[in-house]
């Protein structure tokens, strides 16, 4: 909803004789109201990664590239509230982490595709959410925001 702040000077018409009248301008200033949640730039973000070979068991923190990058914005453009990013489903094994501030996705563990036989289409699907830092109730999760990370075999 857009609220209107009105600042109206009406014609002032005194009833004297002869009547004196004056013109005035009407200014209507429109202020944006914080009524809309954040929205992602895309419904689905996709990327491809290769499995790891050999598996070392060492902890990793590898940034995954997306084009375009994962990004959400406040649809109240004039307010442009800061956004917080979270993974809300699909990360039960904590293979991934999402930077809460800028939405960058990281792979945290080495993946062996042979050990992921139950993974449909060799693809991890994460559901992500963007919420306003100043009002977590305003989230963009009502949109379909998924990240598809497609695994492929390492070329050895
Ligand atoms: Ca608005
Ligand atoms: Ca907003």
Automatic annotation (TrEMBL):
GO terms for cellular component: membrane. Residues 1-23 are annotated as: Disordered. GO terms for biological process: homophilic cell adhesion via plasma membrane adhesion molecules. InterPro entries: Cadherin-like_dom, Cadherin-like_sf. Transmembrane segments: none annotated. Keywords: Calcium, Membrane, Transmembrane, Transmembrane helix. Residues 14-40, 70-136 form the Cadherin domain. The keyword Phosphoprotein does not apply. GO terms for molecular function: calcium ion binding. This is Cadherin domain-containing protein.
């Amino acid at each position: 909803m857009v609220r209107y702040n009105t600042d109206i000077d009406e014609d002032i018409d005194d009833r004297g004789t002869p009547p004196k009248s004056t013109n005035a301008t009407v200014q209507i200033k429109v202020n944006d109201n914080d009524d809309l949640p954040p929205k992602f730039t895309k419904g689905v973000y996709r990327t491809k990664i290769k499995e790891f070979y050999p598996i070392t068991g060492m902890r990793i923190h590898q940034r995954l590239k997306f084009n375009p990058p994962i990004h959400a914005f406040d649809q109240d453009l004039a307010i442009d509230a800061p956004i917080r990013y979270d993974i809300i489903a699909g990360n039960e094994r904590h293979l991934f982490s999402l930077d809460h501030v800028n939405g960058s996705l990281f792979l945290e563990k080495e993946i062996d595709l042979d050990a992921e036989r139950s993974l449909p289409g060799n693809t991890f699907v994460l559901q992500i959410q963007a919420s306003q830092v100043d009002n977590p109730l305003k989230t963009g999760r009502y949109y379909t925001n998924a990240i598809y990370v497609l695994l492929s075999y390492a070329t050895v």
